[in-house]
Prior knowledge:
The complex is a heterodimer of chains A (275) and B (250). With 275 residues, chain A is an alpha/beta fold.
Amino acid sequence: MHGPGRQGETHVRLEGVTKVFRGLGRGRPDVHALGPIDLDLAKGEFFAVVGPSGCGKSTLLEVLAGLATVTEGTATFEGRPIKGEVPDGVGVVFQEDACFPWLTVAENIGFGLRETSLPAGEVEARVRRAVATMGLDGFAGAYPSQLSGGMRQRVCIARTLVLQPRLILLDEPFGALDQQTRLLMGEELLKLWRETGATVFLITHALDEAAMLADRIGVMSARPGRLLEIIETGWPADRDSRIIEESAFGAITAKLWRHLRAESLKVLGKGTDAA
Amino acid sequence: MKYASLVRLVIIVGLIGLIEVMCRTGVITRFTMQPPTLILRDLADILVSGRYNAAIAKTLTNSAIAFVSAVVVGVAAGVVIHGVKLLREALEPLFATYYAIPVLAFYPLLIILFGIGDAPQIMIGFMLGVVAVIVNTLNGIDRVPRVLMKTARIARLSRAATARRITLPYAIPFVLTGVKLALAYSLIGVIGSEFIMSTGGMGFEISFAYNNFDNATMYPLIVLVLFTAIGLNMIVRRWERLVLGRRGMQ
Ligand SMILES: Nc1ncnc2c1ncn2[C@@H]1O[C@H](COP(=O)(O)OP(=O)(O)OP(=O)(O)O)[C@@H](O)[C@H]1O
Ligand SMILES: [Mg+2]
């Protein structure tokens, strides 16, 4: 184990987690979206998930967040089962734009903080820091409609991070960003992860992002999504985007692609090379 | 857009000018209508003298009560009906046919129920408006993106807090469509019922003046009703533009 997660205390545990969406009405088939999946996340580790489109990554995240119930198996967070109830201490950044269009950037970021018992001054200070960290200076009073897609996504990331969750779930959070911003935002995320010691579960479709950010990378199969392999990156905790120059980085990305190519071909209905 | 408002202004001023000319040249007789300039002068007279202040106050107060309660009850009912699927399935067809019913026809019944005070008039204005608010609130809540509802659950908001902090704010542009209708309907309902059976209010005074061939009172009061409705509508539209502008929906 590397990074802050090396103590090895289990933070999240998935055992035989399976999700089947029941077909609505007669003649509609059930969709076996996910699993069975067994996975332990150590406290403070950075775990990334890659997998072909539609393989159940978002479904897995919703199970972890307590937004979706499992069909079979159990999911536990900090020793307590997650049963379709959102546990305290979990923060989520969704794949879709989740900004509130009627609130300014600052109000969006402070949304969850207002529910807490923090004094107003502390709320304001945290929001101001998040605005700066996310590169949104000068836009605190702007409305989401005045921002680009990437900026809106950064607002959503900030809104989650200011709450300092112990488990951070991110569903392709940098999908709307350009490559440069994506790498730099990745660095910010690493910095926050080091500072807070939170456990991070990151879904991404960018192999280099997974290879650069994570302690471990789970590769998922085509639907129904299972974990094909878990790759340990072995990076030190104080890494940043400059590790992409290292030869180990290329090896990890290549390994990820070897797995994913076959799975992605299946999704596209092209079979495997062998077939 | 600027150009269109100019054209609109020219059309309106032109039509009023035309009526003015027709009145002045006798095409429209004095028994039928006063020239618009005279109507405005008489209106100024009426407002300065304060002769109809009581009637104006009564109508505006009753309309305001009808309007505010239609909005408050309509929004609250919309939230509740949205939350209870069975209730919604039961009521939705009724909402769809609601405006086929001439509510004013029930006025005598309301008088029997509520007596001849202001209550029946307020009730008519309220009944006309409330369903428009409910229907538009439902429409707005339906459109809340799923990801925002998930965000509410992640923030562990209660049902009431979800409605207050997420669902309703999202729905406001749609609710405002209902609010505009409720505004118009509350005036129609109140003034309309003052016409039928009442002993005061602008509707009553207009019909009283009509029965006495008192054009010098009737037309200015009609114009006052017109100005009031347009003015109030403009206030709501300004608010609507602000809300839509922020969301980039214009
Ligand atoms: N509410 C639902 N009802 C029925 N089927 C669903 C539902 N949500 C997801 N699915 C199905 O489950 C499967 C997995 O969906 P999911 O969104 O988890 O995939 P994903 O890996 O996140 O895909 P992507 O990379 O495109 O975001 C898909 O086949 C999808 O059609
Ligand atoms: Mg997804």
